[in-house]
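Annotators were shown the component list below and the corresponding predicted structure, then asked to write short factual statements about the assembly.
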Amino acid sequence: MEIINLTIDNKPVVVKKGTTVLEAATSIGIHIPTLCYMKLEDLNIENRPGGCRVCVVEVKGRRNLAPACCTEATEGMEVNTHSIRAINARRTVMELILSDHPADCLVCPKSGNCDLQNMAHRMGIREIHYKGEQSSYRKDTSPAIIRDIDKCIMCRRCEMMCNEVQTVGVLSAINRGFNSVVAPAFEMNLDHSVCTYCGQCVAVCPTGALTEVDETGAVIRALSDPSKTVIVQTAPAVRAALGEEFGMEAGTLVTGKLVAALRRLGFDYVFDTDFAADLTIMEEGAELLNRLTRHLQGDPNVKLPILTSCCPAWVKFFEHQFPDLKDVPSTARSPQQMFGSIAKSYFAQQLGVRREDLVVVSIMPCVAKKYERGRDEFSVNNNPDVDYAITTRELAALIKISNIEFRALPNEEFDKPLGESTGAGVIFGTTGGVIEAAVRTAYEVYTGKELPRIDFHELRGMEGLRHATIDFNGLPLNIGIAHGLGNARRLLEDVRSGKSRFHAIEIMSCPGGCIGGGGQPYHHGNSEILVKRQQAIYREDSNKTIRKSHENPYIKKLYAEFLGAPLSEKSHHLLHTEYFDRTK
Amino acid sequence: MPKIKLADSTVQTIREICKKYDNKEGELINVLHNVQEKLGYLPAEVQEVIALELNMSVAKVYGVVTFYSFFTMIPQGEYPISICMGTACYVRGAEQVLNEFKRQLKVEVGQTTPDGRFSLSCLRCVGACGLAPVVMVGDKVFGRVAPQQVKDIIAEYHEGCPHEAKSA
Amino acid sequence: MSDYNMQILICGGTGCKASESEEIRNVFNDLLGEYLLEDEVQVVTTGCFGFCEKGPIIKVLPDNTFYVHVTPADVDEIIREHLVKGRQVERLLYRDPHSHEVIHDSKGMDFYKKQIRIALRNCGFIDPENIEEYIARDGYLALGRCLSEMTPEGVIDEIKKSGLRGRGGAGFPTGLKWEITSRSVADQKYVVCNADEGDPGAFMDRSILEGDPHSVIEAMTICGYCIGADKGLVYIRAEYPLAIQRLKVALDQARAYGLLGRNILGSTFGFDIELRYGAGAFVCGEETALIHSMEGSRGEPTVKPPFPAESGYLGKPTNVNNVETFANIPVIINKGAAWFSAIGTEKSKGTKVFALAGKINNVGLIEVPMGTTLREVVFDIGGGIKGGKKFKSVQTGGPSGGMLTTASLDTPIDYENLQAAGTMMGSGGMIVMDEDDCMVAIAKYYLEFTLEESCGKCTPCRIGNKRLFEILEKITAGNGKEEDIDKLRMLSHVIKDASLCGLGQSSPNPVLSTLAHFEDEYLAHIKQGRCPAGKCKALLKYVVVEDKCTGCTLCFRTCPVGAITGERRAPHFIDQALCIKCGICFEKCKFDAIELA
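Structure shown to annotators:
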């Protein structure tokens, strides 16, 4: 390994060859500002167009200033990050960006969480010396994402996520010069495009150009309507991230406080999507075993591998990009929709409330869930199974609006019956979790034996594509895992060409799985946060007394009292769905 | 943008052009050149076919089309008028000539007259600096054009115009 | 050629073609048949003669007669008098503008006297669509020598010794560039010729490709041999149809003669060339942007390093040179590095082609030794300022360059001196300005160009240039403030210092340069609301001088917007609200009764 010696602000620093000036500076505690640059180390995701020029520094002997993010450290280099020349250039660049940016910070949905705002604050910008024409575009509101690209600063992070990581290809830089901006083809609305609403563009946008549709107002109105019974479900990944919005360390589990907060907000019942996750495992696991058995019996019509179907962005992705494979994924609805469906049938019956008077709110780490809840097939007589889906961030906003001191809340328990869940349901929140939960149940159902171990470490991790073979009592079950739609595409292409050797594949659209969802607290480019959330999820799992979905007593009760058995006619009606070819 | 329905033969033409370039994404610019040469412009529907054939996102195709000034999504007029705005022409009064064209045709640069007869554009140096300022109508070059001649140049192409005149 | 007694060379450059040179050729072909001379006289369409001002030009060989401003109607007389009777057509001959004497041979014209033609050696002398004519003038001799007598290292060494530097603008030593690419290890390398000439007012590369395409093909092949590439690409502007057509013809001929393809000239070396088309983006002159464009993407530049020499087209080592640079190569091999490096100045060797245009008598394409002074170019070769006006400045380097003023008239032109004077060599546009040109408006003109051509990737270029332009707009509209001068300077320096690529890094040069030399003009706009050159419309006001107005109604009749009213034989009046300041009334008035207030 070649070693490079250089000085930054007169401090000597030793780095290995290939290190950038930015990384070298960071290693000795000098934090050069950046905007377009973003590196999610643990996920192998990098955005480094060298475009914003906010990180320029002075390098002795160099004619012009150097962008620290994409200038490699060289032997004997003398870098000055705070010479008057560098500071003046950085501040001018910042002023230029602000001169073409609406100054509506006070009412911007990104206020307080905006990288651009933080940078202006950090650089002490007090006046914009160069004023002039500002870019103006049509605002685009879709079922899940709002594009207000007057606020686009051309960092290209969203474009990189949409094209390189997700391979969805909805966004591209268009036009040129002052008129350039990132937009869909023909500047069409997102809901006319092949957008999956995965929300990764929202997750990385450093400004308020891309945000989620805000449903908090509607939730507040429902809560204050005395004629409605309002119940809430919270997805597994929410509890591993919500604390960040209140200044808590990343990876802090806040399940009990979350429940307490929701109760204080006025929800009549506080339930857990994990319950529905357990239900998903019952259905999806049964479907896997059914297909597997038929396959082993030599049925040529059986489709393998089975693909998980919990992730709405993933579902929309294959409906657009692989419609020919639409009968390959499991027909099981996602946990959010299973919950809604059971809540508005079984639970409404129990309460003796009409479905129209029951309002189901879900708290999701995801923006695509907003789109999913609105899909036609998930409503009965125009009454949706899930009425509102708000993100982790929106929940935090609700809590703040309602004057609840989150950190001081006691730990409380979910309500019964739809609040009871197992460790298997919890791990749905991370990549590898759905398939591990499925294996825990399918193994015992298939072999009739108790699992010798519950933790399948071979299925865990942050690698974008993983695979493992699990011994099902002599039957080697090949399992594939992909997170990020680009990785999913690679597995799908193998399925399409018949090369796939997997029996089951888990797919989550967001890097890291739901813990890295588009509706989670912003990671601001720090992927360590996602790793900590993942660890928290597994911690929650191991703290649970029941860790297999089929052992959830309320799931057993639900089948006994209402559904009959997995894949029963009632299950099919309430818990399964169909997919559509969206190329037409 | 009003949707247009492409004729099957047009789709076939586009497909053949893409095939000529092995349906390779890297050949996008060549494909766009060829298709525009055949069809005159590159409307959204055409870009969609190209994206499909080259197996790339239509956003990327649009990103490329809008980057290069040579590509247009608007049909050109029967007589495309280009005013050279190269420096040599500029210092010899090209801007005044351009303004006169705008005034006479009542269109801005990049637009086509409502009757589809004339479209107006600027170009950078046709290499005929000795004739500056230069105006091109289709392939025909008009040299040393003065604003006063603009009317005559337009009239030359305007059939049935009462003051039909020949240019110098 | 020897079969014919006489040759008619007709300039087929774009300028002359625009003035009907093709029609002249057709008439020649028709009439030569009628005069039964088709076996005696050969008609050849050549590349640009350079003297565009006098186009269309035809030359008669062997006596080297140079006819200017020829029209199709003149052909019959030329045949009748010159070809048949051996008498020159006096009225079509060039006359020296000072002595008014007839000059028969181009060698005697001031325009050509101080030129040395290396890159343009064949332009105007050969039929670019006939490889034999290129070969007859030592064409492909250099390639033959390289392949049979020289090692790649030897060739690179010769180029290095010649001191040749990139003619595209920045002036990077060509031999060194080749050497770096030759040292990159890869299974595939590429030679790229940058023919995306985009400077407004420059047509050097186009003329070379139109007039002598084989010189570029030969040089690219030599480059391929040196760096270890078997594939070449010419990235050419789609707006250059004639150059494209001639290049295609030349490529086919070279292949047919075994000068491209496998085992060139019996060696083990193989090389071929493809064309790639630009689509109207000036930034694609920047080599990384050019490469992305060739790959089918938006032509956005990327940060260097990596340089194309390490990772270029499709990620492979790529050597990019411009047309004029390549055109010099065969001559250097044939005549030797010592011969070449004897021409020019200490650090700038050889010649440079300039497109001389603007307010000058002799517009055209010229090639002069490095070190020629601006005065020689403007007043000797260029024949001075048009219409007897006063010389003000020369703009070089296009939108990346700046102004040379009277103070620089005696400065020898080379890379270093131009840079020291606050401008740059650029690709070779040379626009002459006179007293009627407003320097603020010119800066604005270039900024507007940059604004349109900025790719939009980096902030300083995308937004900074927009703000610069807006300040200039304010000043030319009469709304400038004194502090704007400081703002222009400060912002310009940041844009230069912090932009991603060469386009942004040089885009404020026209502003800085005009500010350096003509700050007083800026101040006149700002403080007195006056445009000294009378160019900035918002600051102009045409008024009728009542004492002088005879009421002839000429202005009334010529005003295109009906802004002038008045009775016959009574003083007229200009309605300022309607006036578009076109200046037609001012020009037409025979009594000087309209003046600029």
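Statements collected:
1. Chain C has a mean pLDDT of 92.
2. The interface with chain A takes residues 281, 298, 300, 302-303, 305, 451-460, 462-467, 470, 487, 490-491, 494, 496-500, 505 of chain C (CB under 8 Å).
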